[in-house]
Amino acid sequence: MIRLLVFIALLALLAAGFAWVADQPGDIAVTFRGMRYETSPVIAFSAVLALGLAVAIVLWLLRLFLTAPGRLSRASRKRKRDRGLAALSKGMVAAGAGDLRTAQRATALAGKGLGDEPLALLLRAQTAQLAGDRDTTRETFARLAENPETRALGLRGLHVEARRAGDAEAAHHYAQEAHKIAPVAWAGAAVLEHHSSNQDWTAALKAVEANAAQRLIDKPTANRQRAVLKTAIALDLGDRDQAQALNLAREAADLAPDLIPAVALAGRLLARRGDLRKAAKLIEGAWKAAPHPDLARVYVDLRPGDSASDRLARARTLARLAASDPESALSVARAAIDARDFTAARQAMAPFIDASAANRPTARICLVMADIEDAERGAAGLVREWLSRASRAPRDKAWVADGMISDTWSPVSPASGKLDAFRWMTPPERLTADAPWEPPAEPAIPEAPIQIEAQPVEAAIVEAAPAPADDAATKLAAISEAARSATPTREQVLAPIAAAPDDPGPRKKPD
Q: Across residues 156-165, what is the average pLDDT?
């Protein structure tokens, strides 16, 4: 609208100018080579305008002719660029969808139209990755790393390729170089993982502090990583510098109160120093949140030289803080076995081995029951029965990281080198269907010679015997000896033996 008004205004001014010139009296005379030319001002003015317009048209045509090759070249380049951009868009979609053939065709077209532009090189690298061409992938990312504007992108690609090739040192080098350019999360995490996998806890702690200062990680994550690394340093110090180890363990426990290894280490070191009250308070606080056997061991053994009954009383004190947790019952039962108070041990285990209990007893519960039967009665049959149950029982909680199960905690995963990978959890159960569990019966002392009626079991045990026996007494002794030798130990929980649980073992032949 404004342009239209301006155009109308210019026409009005031009018309007014012509009218003004037409109203002016007089003539215009020009003498050229002896000839005199006279005309009115309006005609002279019109002639000048026409001449100017003609000159402008000639100059425009001349310029159009001279610049035609350049304009044609630019138009051709624009068409190629447009085709390259279209191929780039199509190739990115194809590479993301895993369509290798389409991605390769699009990469070729994008290379022709866009040359070495960053996005074209990125598409080339992605297509090479999809095709498994590692050499082309590394060469393309190296070209991206040479350009200051795309250096971070190239280093990221080289870092990924180095990790795929298993070259940890090269991957760490690329991550460090990228971290110098700009604070990026992936580079900070890669530097931390490198130091952690090499167990360089001090350098890893510095990397955590740098990541936290640059706000690459949030505060809870930074505190958790600090706690894990301080615990690792304290464990390495061990008995060499107990004061420094205690300080680090207490700092770790303050940063992450649910980090069981830090709390257990701090409690043990406090107990060695004689601060029993502080150690007990620290462990009790962690036990309320998450009962753990390491905490129970430290708490029960706080005061060296205590009697077994004193340790039992301390275990009961700890158990009252989490009465319904199996770890409380296990700690009391263990202490009761050491104190030879088998009634207390059975009472602690009773809620978890009752046939009406909601859950089957776990392997550790079965092993504790085997220890009770062995220490109190020496009943080989019941011990064997509980060991058999343990071999089929649900798993207890353990430290699990990357599919690996460990009895001890570690700051990093042995499989991946990831920091703080271990979690205290129940490993996945096997997909097996066991027979319904029933509590074992009390052992009965036989008054008459044992009559073995289970033909398949007898046959299986006889096969393990050195030689078949002719008379019944010799045969029974051979079977009993083979069964006794096949009884699993406490450390080796074997498959269940289909024998009577109250088998008293071999009988001696009368002289």
A: 91
